[in-house]
Amino acid sequence: MRSISAARNVRGGGLRSRVGDGRHAPAKSRTVSLPPDPYRDLDARADPDKLIQSLELRARTPSHARLRRRFLDFVGLQAGDRVLDVGCGTGVVLRDVAARVGRSGHVVGIDPSRRAIAFARALARAHRLPARVTLRVGDGLALPFGAGRFDAVLAVTVALHVADPEALVREMVRVVKPDGRVGLQDQDFGTLAVTHPDRDLTDHILRGVVGRMYEEPYSGRRLLALLQDAGLAHVRLRTDVYQDMTLEPYSKGFLERRAELGVRFGLVDAATAQRWLDGFTALVAAGHFLMTLNFYGVVGVRSSRASRR
Length: 309
Prior knowledge:
The protein is of the alpha/beta class. The chain is built from 10 helices and 8 strands. The longest helix is centred in the last third of the chain and has 17 residues, at 270-286.
């Protein structure tokens, strides 16, 4: 399957859309054993480094960098804070946090993937982070820390990949200090919008893929209730948007993966998936491409009163 071309001089000659022609019906002859969310067990994947590198590619995308900055502003970290980053992956958020808490702060990252933690350690050394940094392999549903250890506990784009997000939040609340902050940020695939000449085919692929990959693809809108139900006080919500008008490399890879998964899941055949990708090429060439996705950030405080119960 060819990739999306982002060349500005492409004028879309020979590209076409066939809305409602029935060609995006599932291929009945294919029986697909649906794979789990790849980030549930990253180290078991055949291509963990490719997935890990996609995290860093996303991190370098200007719109994603802005999302992280706004969320960390919203959390209100201070110099000297001791912060836990749950599901830290390659340390994208951890590196931003370290710069904020300064030399007197301490940042701990935990992730179940040994490969991701190895990348995170190498990148932390390369960036010569000002804060003390500790990286550990571990499970966010059973954090290996005593109660009340951290000033803030964060989980960014993690809830989507967790089978029991309520248990994740309970653990985060357990290890944060009284009056400490718990913060979550996650995307919500129910808010994904992307321009394409074939709207029905686009909805069929995008909704079909996330419905097969994730237990709760609309995870972002659940975060507010997760913190409220955990008994946190002063729960606040911030909504931000990933926006791309030029087909950034991250967006390009995202859409190509959706096309590949659409074929793998039997939602479309390879020719239809390629026709879908070609539709984006034409939009980029005309300067009409747009992709947006809502990210929801929530922050709550573990009250001193709640900690004594």
